[in-house]
Amino acid sequence: MASANLIADALENPEGAATIERVRAQVAEPTRRFRVYS
Asked: Which residues fall within 8 angstroms of residue 3, CB to CB, at 6 or more apart?
């Protein structure tokens, strides 16, 4: 559910630059470890 919480945080405060940067950083870590290839 961590990803759902990150999405909710971003949607609740779309104009909050600090929130968006925090969410972006938290998403970047797992995507570095677990690459998504298309």
From this structure: 27
23, 29 in Cβ contact below 8 A?
Answer: no
Residue type, 11: L
Three-state secondary structure call for residue 10? helix
**pTM of the prediction?**
0.70
What is the rounded distance in angstroms from the CA atom of residue 21 to the CA atom of residue 16? 9
Query: What was the pLDDT predicted at 6?
Result: 93
Whole-angstrom Cα distance, residue 26 to residue 6?
8
The token duo for 23 is 């969410």
What number of other Cβ atoms are within 10 A of residue 11's Cβ? 9
